[in-house]
Amino acid sequence: MIVSSLLAAIPGVVHGFGTATELVPAALQEAWDLRPLKKQVHGTHAARVVTHRQPVGEADAFHTSEPGIPVSVITADCVPLLLARRDGTAVAAVHAGWRGLHAGIIPQILTELGAEQGGWVAAIGPTICAPCYEVSEELAQDFLRRFADMPPEHVLPTPRHFDLRAVAEHQLRAGGIEALEHVGGCTCCTRGADSEFIYRSYRRGDRNSQQHAGLIITSQGHS
């Protein structure tokens, strides 16, 4: 399980980013059956979760202020983004691939959370790195136009190689997140001490991945 030191310091919140050998982070397993019923679609809809096993339909961001409810996302190269209020009273999980970033899922969820008022921290988890993420020239040029408020070399460090992490960080900071951490490395090329790949990666050939990242407010921390 991969963890963020920023999120680990939040009282009453546990979290984790899954790996190829532990798809559901250990911190979430006990309450896993209580997670919302969802379908991720690379969109921008954010669902507020208030009850156990809540049907939320198609969504790619999930947030709650209720204890005991896991909010999580599935990724296999896209950005798994976890956020928490510093006082442990609210958490959010966001799935942000290039489509979600392009459509503005991060600014949208930050507005919904009121992050511009401060009080939130964020962790960007295991995500495909720019050297591993080559896109078409047409898409690369579209990214440069869409993210024109960023230096071009941050969007595309090398020709046709898109940096998901850099765009996610830029949008987070623009939306009021000051405390931010990158954890876990690249889903496509990071290997462990045994030379085995640590994560599942769609770009590397893994399909139908169920690699999860999420958080849960504990009853003790919320009381």
TrEMBL record:
Matching Gene3D superfamilies: CNF1/YfiH-like putative cysteine hydrolases
Cross-referenced CDD domains: YfiH
Keyword Zinc: yes
InterPro entries: Cu_polyphenol_OxRdtase, Cu_polyphenol_OxRdtase_sf, Cytotoxic_necrot_fac-like_cat
Pfam families membership: Cu-oxidase_4 (PF02578)
Keyword entries, A-Z: Metal-binding, Transferase, Zinc
GO molecular function: copper ion binding; S-methyl-5-thioadenosine phosphorylase activity
SUPFAM superfamilies noted in UniProt: CNF1/YfiH-like putative cysteine hydrolases (SSF64438)
Superkingdom classification of source: Bacteria
Reactions the enzyme catalyzes: adenosine + H2O + H(+) = inosine + NH4(+); S-methyl-5'-thioadenosine + phosphate = 5-(methylsulfanyl)-alpha-D-ribose 1-phosphate + adenine; inosine + phosphate = alpha-D-ribose 1-phosphate + hypoxanthine; adenosine + phosphate = alpha-D-ribose 1-phosphate + adenine
Family statement: Belongs to the purine nucleoside phosphorylase YfiH/LACC1 family.
Protein name stated in the entry: Laccase domain-containing protein
Native source species: Zemynaea arenosa
